[in-house]
Amino acid sequence: VSILFINPIFVNIAISQLRSAFAMSIFLFFIFLYRKTNIKIFEFLIFLTPAIHTVSVLFLIIYFGYKLISFKYQDKRRKIYPYVLGVVAGIIMSTAWYYILDYFGDRRAIYSDMSSSFSYMSFWIITSFALLFIKLKDSTSTLIVFIFFFFAGIFTVNTVFGAYASRFVALAYMSIVYLFLNIENKSYRSLIFLGYFLFCSIQWFYWLT
Question: Which uninterrupted H or E stretch holds 205?
Answer without folding.
Answer: helix 186-208
